Amino acid sequence: MRVFVILSMLLSPLAATAVPHDTAGITLADMMLAQRGPANLLPHQGGPRIGSKQATSRVKQKYRDSKILSINLIRSKGPAVYRIKTLSASGVVKYVFVDGTTGDVFE
Question: What is the spatial distance between Cα 107 and Cα 45, in angstroms, rounded to a whole number?
């Protein structure tokens, strides 16, 4: 009985979602992803869209007085991100990150 109650609680939000009549091959996970939005339905490409040279160039533009010490590509469950180690003119070491998909620079 508990399993039925838990499943009905989990599936009740799915009842409001429009599901195509032909559901062959559609899993519960697919339906839950569909609720979150179409962006989550796209397959994860895994690799960055911008290269390390482009990431380095963007950091140099934003931090003109800093030197770049190293660059590493971080691949995890999310999108690829570059971690760039910088050295400022005043001697401060800082890690700056560049989104491998969009090229956005952030700390």
Answer: 24
